[in-house]
Design a protein that fits this description.
Length: 196
């Protein structure tokens, strides 16, 4: 079950997401978690694109679809690191790790049970993750609950796919630069054309 937030704990914490791609909402989440710990593990879910794992939750099934996971683990880890460094976070204050929430029995291979997990709640999938993580023995701390996501990865990917530069305002500048380098707009457009 979620526990109350400390004023500031000395020690480590973690966050997680698919980060497809890392956007301003993700940055807000990570920075909020960093306000409560001295070191943060940033977990990347669905980190093996060749073995995407479906989750049996109504608002989570799309998370295993290849078209919703265009970026590799390496690309996402690089983007997260660049965005956090550009936001003024010390490179000594975080690291990026795989976070197989879709295969909970594997999670302790990457994150020890004594590391608190910070999360946010927008939908039933977030609530299910809290239940699963708590069942594994992790302490889960909810940073905030909101009814609506202001920015979603699906929204950013759709703008990229459609060639609409409005996506640039939705991601940190360092992430935008890397998305250009990764040619993600072209990749998404080609994938859409192939499906169409």
């Amino acid at each position: 079950m979620p526990s109350g937030l400390p004023d500031r704990s000395a020690g480590s914490g973690s966050v997680h997401g698919r980060f497809q791609p890392f956007h301003n909402g993700h940055l807000e989440y990570v920075l909020a978690a960093l306000a409560h710990c001295d070191f943060l593990y940033v977990g990347v879910t669905q980190y093996r694109r060749g073995r995407l794992v479906a989750v049996d939750a109504p608002d989570a099934r799309h998370r295993a679809a290849p078209e919703h996971n265009p970026l590799t683990y390496f690309e996402r880890a690089t983007m997260i690191r660049a965005a956090l460094l550009a936001a003024g976070v010390s490179g000594d204050a975080f690291t990026v790790i795989p976070f197989p929430i879709e295969e909970p029995s594997e999670l302790a291979e990457f994150l020890p049970l004594d590391i608190p997990i910070f999360t946010t709640v927008y939908d039933a999938w977030n609530e299910e993750k809290i239940r699963v993580l708590g069942g594994l023995g992790y302490t889960v701390r909810v940073l905030y609950r909101r009814a609506v996501k202001e920015i979603s990865g699906a929204q950013v990917r759709a703008l990229l796919r459609d060639g609409d530069d409005a996506w640039r305002a939705l991601v940190p500048p360092a992430a935008a630069s890397l998305l250009d380098d990764y040619m993600l707009a072209d990749r998404l457009a080609r994938a859409g054309a192939a499906r169409g």
